[in-house]
Design a protein that fits this description.
Elements: H1 2-41, H2 46-51, E1 54-58, E2 64-67, E3 77-78, E4 85-89, E5 91-95, E6 101-108, H3 111-114, E7 120-121, E8 128-129, H4 146-165
Antiparallel strand pairs: 1-2, 1-4, 3-4, 5-6, 7-8
Bound molecules: zinc ion.
């Protein structure tokens, strides 16, 4: 009898934990939605500032230009070099070949925008460039070069086959 009671209490506290977790997740979702809405509606908001006067790169000419997204704009945006919608957001690479940082960032057009498969590597330093490319800072390691990236990929595949064979 006493035992039954105890397990019921355990069950209850488990259910409470689950409820609490669901509540936290829901609260996070609401906060995130509010934040997005706020950035969207507030012209001075963080996201808007980042979108304003952003650097774009023309897929056909490789030239860069600054552009501020307006309501109703779609990507690609009109490039002043072609007069057509061939402008894509440029990612900035701040790295050098030897893993140092450069004060003069390289604008890079991501492969995904060009409709090419596979990861993008910077034409200047040869390192991996991703969307919202991280800028150097304390604790930020330089991204892998193409050779390092392929080696890592091969190693990961090796590990996976190892696990599969076991
Ligand atoms: Zn680079």
């Amino acid at each position: 009898m006493a035992r039954k009671g105890a397990s019921r209490i355990a069950e209850n506290s488990n259910a409470n934990k689950k409820k609490f977790l669901a509540f936290i997740i829901a609260a996070c979702a609401v906060l995130w939605a509010l934040h997005s809405l706020h950035s969207f509606l507030w012209p001075g908001g963080e996201a808007r500032v980042a979108d304003m006067n952003r650097l774009y790169i023309c897929a056909e000419t490789g030239q860069t230009f600054h552009y501020s997204l307006k309501l109703g704009d779609t990507i690609p945006v009109m490039s002043p070099y072609t007069g057509r919608n061939t402008g894509y957001p440029a990612e900035l690479c701040y790295w050098t070949k030897d893993g140092g940082t450069s004060t003069d960032p390289t604008p890079v057009l991501l492969n995904g925008y060009k409709g090419l498969p596979g990861p993008t590597f910077c034409p200047v330093c040869g390192r991996l460039v991703v969307g919202h490319n991280p800028a150097p800072g304390p604790g930020v390691k330089p991204p892998p070069t193409e050779a390092e990236y392929r080696a890592r990929l091969a190693k990961r595949e090796e590990l996976l086959t190892d696990q599969r064979d076991r």
